[in-house]
Structures are given as structure tokens and as C-alpha cells.
Design a protein that fits this description.
Blueprint: E1 4-6, E2 12-14, H1 16-41, H2 46-70, H3 97-105, E3 108-117, H4 123-133, E4 137-145, E5 150-159, H5 164-173, E6 177-183, H6 192-205, H7 210-218, E7 222-226, E8 245-247, E9 250-254, E10 260-264, H8 272-288, E11 296-300, E12 306-312, H9 317-326, H10 329-336, H11 347-350, E13 356-362, E14 368-377, E15 380-387, H12 396-410, E16 415-420, H13 425-432, E17 438-443, E18 446-452, E19 469-470
Parallel strand pairs: 11-19
Antiparallel strand pairs: 1-2, 3-5, 3-6, 4-5, 7-10, 8-9, 9-10, 11-12, 12-13, 13-14, 14-15, 16-18, 17-18
């Protein structure tokens, strides 16, 4: 135990043991000095050496006094038990390497962590004490009761130099098991009820938001929508009861329009609380029925024709079929990469909000002449275009692609890919015109172009958020 304690006003209070030790040290020093003085005093130059020693000691004492006064206001280097001062960040750019090193030293990191503890009094307190020992702040905490134990989900702020493995090790010593941890960002600072309400609002405004809302609600997971009647035939998915099915790392929910929505998260089992939240979002979507934002943009082509770009859904299937009937076999083959006769069978799937978002290009007479699809493909996102033959090479494809990529950026997608053929020069040119890093890969005779969205967004316009905007001027050509 330390011999120094802290009073309420913060000054040190010494115990009697410290005083005894100091007094013994003084007596020892006097005895040693007396012995040295007797030894030197009986020598030939004893008085001179004593005078020189006295002057040296006086000079040393004076220098020590001057140094103490000069640095007397420096902060103490010992730990006082108080919280460290708040991090101060410079508003502008730093002026040199020293400033950069100082900012890095005071940086902190956000972490999302989930661990399972015993359902016993004091287990959570032990875990929190272990985190405090690593200088980790707990910003939020959610508990998920289970039949055996409790799953605790934390949002943590830790020192920047503290690795995830060190946090997990401390949690394991405190009794946590099945610990999972990953980096978080500022969006995770929103408390759980507010975040769930925000996701419910997005789902209520747009049926296509349901898969994205589920992904943001449940974290990194794979979501697939299986129609009741698969495209191209095949076996239908097993029927799911109204209340859904939860199987460890997989949950199955009945889709509002029929079929099944599956959510998989292999690295982390779902809790009953998460399952109830996901089921509530799906039930909300089912009660509201089909819906998409009805906003639209009016654009003027170089030759003066006005076209309208708007969201589309399954209610546009008849008009989309009529457009495909006007397309040439070559155009349909470029789009679907298969038998042209099967093209119409895909429209219900492509126009379903469960599978993604669709933009339609409509003339002044109301005829659809182009479709652009942003499709949720598990963890990936696909973009696809179909433009009627006589409306090609007018810039419509590039306009649609730019808007689809802007939607993908807003949805938080890391990349989008397009499946086409090397001979489809229009699609290749439109992808290049995005100004994004592109990866090219040949798969079974088809060309797959992947655009990474970690660069600057390609389009400054916001995707459809309920406003009606009018755009004049020409649209750039493909």
C-alpha cells in the first residue's frame, strides 16, 4: 500500500512511517559527513578541500532552486486518479510532423462489441471494471436475455493504440465468452430506439428500403428475397409460418408479397430481440403495401425531346413488356445474356422493390423507352440497363447509370458491378464515364465490370427523396 493518500482538496498527506525514514536518512547523512570531514581535515590540504566542497554544494543548491522555480507550474507526471483531459483537435491543417504526432497520440477509436456473460449478479460489473482497466469508455449498452446467459452489446470508445485483441482478452478474463468486436463509426452513436424508428420511417416511405433497413439493423449480413414462384421454374422455397423462423445464424421471414426473406449472419447468432425487431419491420412493410416515391425529373435531350425519369415497380410490368417487344433480339440478348423468349419472365422479379430499385425513362406520351435496375445481390449490388433501340445513343443510358450509382452510394454500397459483353460498347463507355476505379473480369464469355464506390461520388444529385425537380439542358451522350 502506498504511504501517500489524497485528501479531498487533492494535497498529499504523509504517514508517520515516511517521517521516520526521512529522519533516519538525515542522521545517516550527518554521520557520513562527519567522517568525511575528519578524514579531510587531518590531511595537508584539508581546509582548502572543505571550502571548495562548500562552494560546490552551495552552487548546486542554488541551481536546483532556480530550476524548480522555472518549472514549478509543469503538470505532474504521476497518476492522480483523475480522468485524462479531453482531446483537443485543431480546426485547420497541422503545421508540421510534431502536430501530426500529437494528434495521433490523443486519438480514440469506436468499437462495437458483443459478448455473452453469465446471468448472475455482478457479472456485468466485473466486465465493466475490466474495460475501465483498459481505459475504455462505454458509450451505450444493450442487453439481449437468453435462456442461458445474457448477450451484452456495447458501443465503446477506446484509446487509438489499443488493439481489438487486447479488448477481447480483457473481456475473456472478466468472464465474457463468444466475443465479437468490429470497428464502429459516428452513425453508431445514435441510440437503438432512435435508429430503429429511423429505419421504420425509411421503410414506410419506400418498399425498396426493407432489405437495406434489415442490413443496417442487424449489421453485416446477407439478405436474399426468394419469390414464391422462382423465375425460370424450379422448386419453390419451403413455406414459412407467419411468425417466421429463427435458426441460430439464419432467420426466415414471410415476404409481404409471398415468398421468403432469408437473413444469414454466419459469424454471429441472432438473438430473440433482433429477430423480433426484424419481424416488426417486415410486418410494417406488409401492412403498408406496395409503394415507391412518386417524384420524377424532366430532362431535355439534345434534339429537344423531353423525357421523364421516375421510379418504377411491378405496376409498370405491362408497359415494360411492351417496350421489350419493340426491342430487337440483339438488344435483348445484350441485356439478358440468354434466350430472348425468356426476357418477359424476368420483369416481375426485376421490378420488385424487394430485389432493388428500378428507374424508368418515359416519353411525353407515357411510353416507357428505357429501364435501369439497381439489384441487391446478396452482399453485392448489380446495375443493368435496357434502352429501346431507337432511343439509344442519346445519353439516356449514361444518365440512368449515374443515377443508379448515386443511389448505391446513398445506400452504403461499397461497389456495383455490371454484366455485359465486350461488344456492348455503349455499356462499357457508360461505366468508364462514371470516373470511378473499374475492375474488369471475363467470366464464361461475359464481361463483368466492377466500379468501386470508395472514391468521390459520381453524381451530385440526390436520388429520389420525395421532391420534384425540373432539369433543363442537354443530356450527355454515351
Amino acid at each position: 500500500m502506498s504511504d501517500v493518500t489524497r485528501a479531498k482538496h487533492g494535497r498529499p498527506v504523509h504517514h508517520w512511517r515516511r517521517d521516520v525514514v526521512e529522519l533516519a536518512a538525515v542522521f545517516t547523512a550527518v554521520a557520513v559527513a562527519d567522517g568525511v570531514a575528519n578524514l579531510i581535515g587531518h590531511g595537508p590540504n584539508g581546509p582548502v578541500l572543505l571550502v571548495i566542497s562548500a562552494i560546490a554544494l552551495a552552487a548546486t543548491a542554488g541551481f536546483h532552486t532556480w530550476w524548480a522555480r522555472r518549472h514549478g507550474h509543469a503538470p505532474p507526471t504521476s497518476d492522480t486518479g483523475a480522468r485524462p483531459p479531453a482531446e483537443v483537435r485543431q480546426a485547420g491543417p497541422s503545421d508540421g510532423p510534431a502536430a501530426t504526432r500529437g494528434a495521433a497520440a490523443g486519438a480514440s477509436a469506436l468499437w462495437r462489441m458483443r459478448t455473452t456473460v453469465k446471468d448472475a449478479p455482478g457479472s456485468l460489473a466485473t466486465l465493466c471494471t475490466a474495460l475501465a482497466g483498459q481505459r475504455v469508455d462505454i458509450l451505450s449498452l444493450q442487453t439481449h436475455p437468453l435462456a442461458e446467459g445474457t448477450v451484452d452489446e456495447f458501443l465503446l470508445r477506446a484509446p487509438g493504440e489499443l488493439a481489438a485483441a487486447e479488448i477481447s482478452r480483457a473481456v475473456a478474463v472478466a468472464g465474457g465468452t463468444s466475443t465479437w468486436i468490429e470497428r464502429a463509426d459516428a452513425h453508431d452513436l445514435v441510440d437503438a430506439p432512435t435508429r430503429v424508428l429511423g429505419l421504420a420511417t425509411r421503410t414506410a416511405l419506400d418498399a425498396a428500403e426493407l432489405p437495406l433497413a434489415l442490413r443496417q439493423l442487424l449489421g453485416r449480413c446477407t439478405i436474399r428475397s426468394l419469390p414464391a414462384k422462382p423465375v425460370g421454374g424450379g422448386r419453390a422455397p419451403a413455406e414459412v409460418p407467419v411468425e417466421g423462423v429463427l435458426e441460430d445464424t439464419v432467420m426466415r421471414l414471410r415476404a409481404p408479397e409471398g415468398g421468403v426473406i432469408t437473413v444469414e449472419r454466419p459469424y454471429l447468432p441472432f438473438t430473440p430481440t433482433e429477430f423480433a425487431r426484424a419481424r416488426a419491420l417486415v410486418e410494417l412493410d406488409a401492412r403498408l403495401g406496395p409503394r415507391i416515391p412518386r417524384s420524377h425529373d424532366v430532362l431535355t435531350l439534345p434534339e429537344g425531346n423531353a423525357i421523364t425519369v421516375r421510379r418504377a415497380d411491378t405496376r409498370d410490368v405491362p408497359a415494360a413488356k411492351a417496350m421489350q417487344e419493340r426491342c430487337s433480339p440483339r438488344t435483348l440478348a445484350m441485356r439478358y445474356h440468354g434466350p430472348v423468349g425468356d426476357a418477359e419472365r424476368y420483369l416481375n422479379h426485376l421490378l420488385s422493390p424487394r430485389c432493388g430499385r428500378t428507374l424508368a425513362v418515359q416519353t411525353a406520351s407515357g411510353r416507357i423507352v428505357g429501364l435501369g435496375h439497381l439489384l441487391w445481390d446478396g452482399d453485392e449490388t448489380e446495375v443493368a440497363l435496357l434502352i429501346e433501340d431507337e432511343w439509344q445513343r442519346r445519353g439516356i443510358g449514361g444518365e440512368l447509370l449515374g443515377r443508379l450509382v448515386a443511389m448505391a452510394v446513398e445506400a452504403g454500397c461499397e461497389s456495383v458491378y455490371a454484366v455485359t459483353q465486350a461488344s456492348n460498347t455503349g455499356m462499357v463507355a457508360a461505366m468508364r464515364a462514371l470516373g470511378l476505379p473499374l475492375d474488369y473480369q471475363i467470366e464464361e464469355g461475359t464481361l463483368v465490370i466492377t466500379a468501386r464506390l470508395d472514391a468521390t461520388p459520381v453524381c451530385s444529385r440526390l436520388p429520389y427523396d420525395g421532391r420534384q425537380e425540373q432539369f433543363g439542358g442537354p443530356v450527355g451522350r454515351d
